């Protein structure tokens, strides 16, 4: 759980009930993700009074699935921003770093790297925006969010690889801004489910929809 160590209360969803736990009723083991951001383990082994247990209203949209979808979309949005930052840094560096008497950005191989990164950034951004609109509209959100997290994860792999190829060794140094973007991409890629997990879910939905239901599933008109 991000920043759990700063929490005075924790809300736990248990079926159709929400349990509110106070500090001291749950244990925290502090940890960090790959980028060094706080990611803590929270464990609960306590009997709570009935006053801290609240039943959800009938028809409430609150569910474990809804929380997971929102967590996945949030990570995908963060990844889109970090990928764009990696692209901006790479374009800037390629225009400044000279090799063989000219900026490396004038070499076709580097230009191809930058173009591939730009394509992934645009695809990731478009997928995130589509998922946010679907979630806001309440139609086809599950498919759109799955696609956004899967696309963001795939983009993270390619963008980080190409960005570090453009920068060379300097991009891995602790003080270089590229490292801060790519380390977060690698960390967020696995949070709230990685691209393999979300892609598998999409594939299963496509199989379940069958030939007649595939197009409505893709277009959100089902």
Automatic annotation (TrEMBL):
Keyword field contains Oxidoreductase: yes
Keyword annotations: FAD, Flavoprotein, Oxidoreductase
All copies of domain Acyl-CoA dehydrogenase/oxidase C-terminal, residue ranges: 72-184
Keyword Glycosyltransferase on entry: no
InterPro entries according to UniProt: AcylCo_DH-like_C, AcylCo_DH/oxidase_C
SUPFAM superfamilies: Acyl-CoA dehydrogenase C-terminal domain-like (SSF47203)
One of the Pfam families matching this protein, by short name: Acyl-CoA_dh_1
Entry GO MF terms: acyl-CoA dehydrogenase activity
This protein's name: Acyl-CoA dehydrogenase/oxidase C-terminal domain-containing protein
